[in-house]
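Researcher: I'd like a structural prediction for the single chain below. Treat it as a standalone chain; there are no partners to consider.
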Amino acid sequence: MNIMLGNLSVSEIEARLGIKFPQDIADFMSNNHQESAQNVPPGKWHCFDIPFNLVCGDVETAKKIYGALKDKSAECKESLRISVNG
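Model: Treating it as a single chain, here is the predicted structure.
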């Protein structure tokens, strides 16, 4: 049984990673945050605190966020898992 807890905002994810997201991705994420952890729909995302996992509603959303953050990975204080709902 998997248990995941939390509902992190963009600024909370940035603080935990120790980086600032590119403004276009921060805006995209702010506008597409799914408050509920249940059934994250396409185009939306939800980030859990435990484990630190950003769940996207579709592959395109995951690729968009990952693509914007991958060049900053060396600066991150910890790892963020990005997964797709399904």
